[in-house]
Design a protein that fits this description.
Helices cover 49% and strands 13% of the residues. The protein is an alpha+beta fold. It has four domains: 5-204, Ribonuclease H-like superfamily/Ribonuclease H (Nucleotidyltransferase, domain 5), CATH 3.30.420.10; 232-325, Taq DNA Polymerase, Chain T, domain 4 (Up-down Bundle); 345-402 and 483-608, 2-Layer Sandwich (Alpha-Beta Plaits), CATH 3.30.70.370; 412-476. It has a six-stranded mixed beta sheet, sandwiched between helices. The radius of gyration is 28 Å and the shape is globular. The N and C termini lie far apart (58 Å). The chain binds a DNA duplex through helix 10, helix 11, helix 12, strand 11 and helix 18.
DNA sequence: GTGAAGGGCCAC
DNA sequence: AAACGTGGCCCTTCAC
């Protein structure tokens, strides 16, 4: 497939090229780089295309090479030769085109491209259409579908896209004709991909959620570039404590277990791999302990009181987990160029719309202060930390329109105590700690579709008592009960459900398999709630992004219902007000019958 | 050696 | 599969 493209490598040609494209409503947009990490590599090419007319802009970060095989050569000086690309006046037309919101830039996984433009060209991409996110939305959680550009092009256009040049050497002094053509083709195809995708987006009624997602790309790109500061001294201190505890508990456990091993050798205690469930289980059985089918903590807990070795194993597991998952490895993610951690956030990490995070996962840092206090504001800065209070329960109350549940929120009292009072039919002041605890577990469990047996085992109630408490709970909130039942029933009828923004999830279950149906039904109850919570967070991120643009505030982390912003110490109060406002406005766009509550505070450390 | 699967556990 | 939803990371075990 031959396509028309033009290679640009001087200021005059760039100006002309940008003029040609500046009235297009949509532009295919792509970049080629020498690394996946903008802090490590160079930005080599920026491609823009209206579908017919494609410009490949060579920023030529490597010195020396001036020729591109098979192409005419430009007369001017290479962009990079004039120093930092961010200040190069020859690139002004490109920056203007990219940062304009009049031309929607269509890119596949636009977070990647916008990060490079932000860091290397110093400008924010104005308006984004992400075909990767659009494809994910259309697939509605079908995990079997792939969403690479080649897969999406194949699926929506029926064309085969050759991606073999993707991993070629983009730092080469001379790019081959094949490389440049590949680069041009990836940008040139985007308008057509968007057009086809958009038809599906329209018929599946996904316009609102796609807008939500597209508007969130740049805020997330910036958050990844911002990174978060981790005090390595503090982290090492905690890590050393854990290592010492692991060694100590390991020794003690080893001693206790060896008593149950048959062949105690002449050479001393036989070594057991304490991280092997199989070996540890064998040893515990050898001690005469009746072992349950799994050795997971919740199963072992009841045995811990009677058997010291089990208690020791649980202690060991806790510190072993801490020193493996939350130890040295996290320090390796600190980027030398910034001294900060730049994790990867997947915007549609779950079909519900929740983010996922990796390398490292900043959403699973233990809640204990010993860990969180290591994530800090650098000198002269503050962290502003805000989280939605019981957002999922408020969404459930709003969606189900349950009078009593809404009342529990509107009253503004301690929410779990208020539900306890309603469920047990007593005055709020008379609620015992036990009753409040039951109500709290129920409130949380209900959004996951908890059953009586699970509730019984987590509270210590008998099956009958648990069933009775659940019955009372749902009798107190009849509209909520009805909403959840309808959600479960719709699995078989509609075979799909949606969040507040219209995010779609289709069900995949085996009609004849009860547990498969059951799990689909629990998902159907949970997805609209979890999904709307994600919608609200994403909307808040966009509103926040626009509100802090010209301030010292920077987004540094998000954890499902929490937003962490770093700013100059002097701006902390203003930032807190801005953040709270953005989150409240976002909530109000999806929830109207229940007040949204945001807890916000300012600190030097990421702690409550 | 490498990679997938299984078990376990951290977050919300 | 904890008959409670969504993720990622670490370790062992087992197949290639």
């Amino acid at each position: 497939m031959e396509i028309y493209f033009q290679l640009i490598s001087d200021g005059a040609s760039l100006q002309k090229a940008c003029d040609e494209l500046k009235n297009e409503p949509y532009l295919g947009f792509d970049v080629e780089t020498t690394d996946l990490d903008p802090y490590k590599g160079d930005l080599r090419l920026v491609q823009l295309s209206n579908g017919q007319n494609t410009k490949v802009i060579d920023l030529r970060p490597v010195g020396g090479g001036r020729k591109v095989r098979g192409h005419g050569q430009s007369k001017g000086t290479a962009f990079k030769d004039k120093g930092d690309l961010r200040n190069n006046p020859d690139l002004a037309p490109l920056r203007e085109l990219l940062s304009s919101s009049k031309q929607v830039k269509i890119a596949h996984n636009a977070k990647f491209d916008t990060k490079w433009v932000r860091h290397h060209l110093g400008c924010e991409v104005g308006s984004v259409y992400d075909t990767y996110l659009a494809s994910l939305l259309v697939s509605a959680g079908d995990g079997d579908r792939r969403h690479g550009l080649a897969d999406v092009v194949q699926f929506f256009l029926g064309q085969t896209l050759d991606k073999s040049e993707q991993v070629s050497d983009w730092g080469a002094a001379e790019l081959s004709h094949s490389q440049v053509e590949y680069a041009a083709r990836d940008a040139a195809i985007m308008p057509e991909v968007r057009a086809k995708l958009d038809e599906r987006i329209a018929t599946d009624e996904l316009k609102r959620v796609l807008t939500l997602e597209n508007e969130c790309v740049v805020p997330i790109a910036e958050m990844e570039l911002n990174g978060i500061y981790l005090d390595t001294g503090r982290w090492r201190e905690q890590l050393d404590k854990n290592k010492a505890a692991q060694a100590k508990f390991g020794e003690e456990l080893q001693d206790m277990l060896s008593a149950g091993v048959a062949q105690a050798s002449l050479f001393g205690r036989p070594e057991i791999n304490l991280d092997s469930q199989a070996q540890v289980t064998d040893a515990l059985v050898g001690l005469g302990i009746p072992m349950p089918d799994t050795t997971r903590a919740w199963q072992l807990q009841p045995l811990a009181e009677k058997y010291p070795a089990v208690a020791k194993l649980l202690e060991y597991r806790t510190v072993a987990k801490a020193s493996s998952s939350f130890g040295e490895n996290i320090l390796e993610f600190i980027e030398p160029a910034t001294g900060r951690i730049h994790a990867d956030f997947r915007q549609i990490g779950a079909p519900t719309g929740r983010f996922s995070c990796s390398n490292p996962n900043l959403q699973q840092i233990p809640h204990e202060a010993e860990y969180r206090r290591c994530f800090m504001a650098p000198a002269g800065k503050k962290l502003v930390i805000a989280d939605y209070s019981q957002i999922e329960l408020r969404i459930l109350a709003d969606f189900s329109d349950d009078k009593n549940f809404i009342e529990a929120f509107v009253s503004g009292q301690d929410f779990h105590a208020a539900t306890a009072a309603q469920v047990f039919g007593i005055a709020a002041a008379d609620v015992t700690p036990d009753q409040r605890s039951f109500a709290k577990r129920l409130n949380f469990g209900v959004v996951y579709g908890i059953g009586a047996s699970r509730f019984a085992s987590m509270t210590g109630l008998t099956q009958t008592q648990a069933e009775d408490t659940l019955r009372k709970y749902f009798a107190t909130y009849p509209q909520m009960d009805a909403w959840l039942r309808t959600a479960a029933n719709n699995v078989k009828i509609e075979r799909s459900t949606r969040s507040g923004s219209g995010r779609l999830a289709r069900f995949n279950f085996d009609e004849n398999d009860r547990s498969s149906l059951g799990s689909a039904q629990r998902y159907a109850k949970n997805m609209p709630i979890q999904g709307t919570s994600a919608d609200i967070l994403k909307r808040a991120l966009r509103l926040l992004h626009d509100d802090i643009r010209s301030t010292s505030a920077k987004l540094v982390n998000i954890v499902h219902d929490e937003i962490v912003v770093e700013c100059d110490a002097a701006d902390a109060d203003q930032t807190a007000a801005t953040l709270e406002s953005a989150m409240l406005r976002a909530g109000a766009e999806f929830v109207s019958k229940v007040p949204i509550k945001v807890d916000v505070h300012t600190a030097d450390e990421w702690t409550k």
